[in-house]
Amino acid sequence: MEMRRRFMKEKLLTPPNICTMLRIVGTVGLLLIRPLTLPFYLLYTFCGITDVLDGTIARATNSTSEFGARLDSISDLIFYAVMIVKFFPILLEVLPVWMWYCIGAVLVIRACSYVTAAVRYHRFASLHTILNKATGFCVFCLPYMLVQDFALRYCEITCVIAGLASTEEFLIHLLSKEYEPGRKFIWKR
Prior knowledge:
Elements: H1 2-12, H2 15-30, H3 38-60, H4 66-94, H5 97-121, H6 130-145, H7 151-175
Helix pairs in contact: 2-3, 2-4, 5-7, 6-7
């Protein structure tokens, strides 16, 4: 029993994983707050900071792990799901119909990427490519941009970047012989 507690503390309850878990808790907290309010922006910003810090801390302390990478991906998916719940009604009013078709296409490509990875590697796989990170940053900034005059243009640019990122990841999973979790680009360096 003591050895199990020690394993949990040393391997699972590392500072970067705790940071990721705080993001999950913060994300769930966002469900309770009205969007585009000061409390929402404060908690939302906290979630964004923890998203940046977990990987930075893991690399700086040489405590990266498969569990941490999966937890981060799961945290990202939970965050996106909550953002869909909170912002879908707002975006429904703001975005034209054609933009929804573009978003749908991006989501289909992303789903194909996940299914391809599941079939080829027998696991959930979400790569942290440069384009995926750019997409994450753009999507994260969306609530701040929705109150700006250029909100529609910003959504268009975000959709293009997300489409490129989804296509790149899909092609990586489709063309790679094995799962490469550290892959940053479609081309190998």
